[in-house]
Amino acid sequence: MPDPAGTASVDEDLLLERQLCFALTVASRSVVGAYKPVLDALGLTHPQYLVMLCLWESSPRSVRDISDALAQEPATISPLLRRLEVAGHITRQRAEGDERSLAVRLTASGAALRQKATAVPGTMLARLGLDREEVAELHTSMMRLIAATRSADNGAASPAS
Amino acid sequence: MPDPAGTASVDEDLLLERQLCFALTVASRSVVGAYKPVLDALGLTHPQYLVMLCLWESSPRSVRDISDALAQEPATISPLLRRLEVAGHITRQRAEGDERSLAVRLTASGAALRQKATAVPGTMLARLGLDREEVAELHTSMMRLIAATRSADNGAASPAS
DNA sequence: CGCTAATCATTAGTGCACTAACTATTTTGA
DNA sequence: TCAAAATAGTTAGTGCACTAATGATTAGCG
User: Fold this and answer.
1) Each residue of B81-119: pLDDT tens digit?
2) How far apart are CA A116 and CA A137, in angstroms?
3) For testing contact with chain A, the best of B10, B15, B16, B25 (most A CBs within 10 A)
4) Contacts of B123 (CB under 8 A, 6+ apart)
5) pLDDT tens-digit profile of A27-48?
6) Which of A59, A128, B76, B92 is the most buried (most CB within 10 A)?
């Protein structure tokens, strides 16, 4: 059984491996955790903050539109929007042209929250001790990873059909 | 402290900002999602896979030991271990020396699963189209980010500006 | 027109991750 | 020695993220 050249790296891969996906999930959780005290001041969770960023860019948007922008399922966004409505930041009403679609719209309160949020990015850069250049590098790496998973989905999913 | 030179970039930051934390969370979800079909063949979720990696490295471990290794709360690990026990991969019994502690131990089934898991790292590298060098670079970036959040927790919490 | 397809949003159900509160064991120190 | 503090693990409760199924509305086509 023991292949001198190959099996040695297989065992190491089960360690190295842990560093790849593991470091990524820990980094994600850690960064989101670092946002928490800052976003607590706004009364938002991190996913809710991302939705608000979406709406601050353009206000009447459908659920599908938001879920596409955030790369999440509509089923994930739905209850999240309900909480934002309860908090008074958005309204939810059926769209005029298409009664299937929902028009998610900022309230005055939701629009006003944007002013307080303008301080968040700078605060986070300071907290993490990063400059914009480092952030840009990390962003590039993440986008490459995301693109890699997309090609993985398309290419390796079902070659037999 | 509104700096006149900086105010122009504040609006842009609310877009750029989204690229930082947002790209990280999307990348994390995407990579975990890419693992799913591979880990489904082992009957493991991604967090369960990480626990098994832990135990394949050393078998009788306490809950606290595992939770430290994975940087998660014991309350997160606890129900996860219960499912792994139901699946027959581990046993849970009180430690001999300290009745408070739990000895989490691989079963024969759990140890055997390691053989099938040895193929996972190579499969994932191929699926993502990455080589070990790129993985190493990404890992370095993630570790720097994680370290940055740790210093953020320690340093920036108390001094009220 | 009327019937079927497709689309939009929601709900049900599973599993993760966290905080806070709780039980059960040590460990400690007056 | 024996009560208080510390430690180990679990449970309750909230929120996210996903898949699959449901209900409601619109679009397409014979």
Assistant:
1) 999 999 999 999 999 999 999 999 999 999 999 999 999
2) 27
3) B25
4) B38
5) 999 999 999 999 999 999 999 9
6) A128
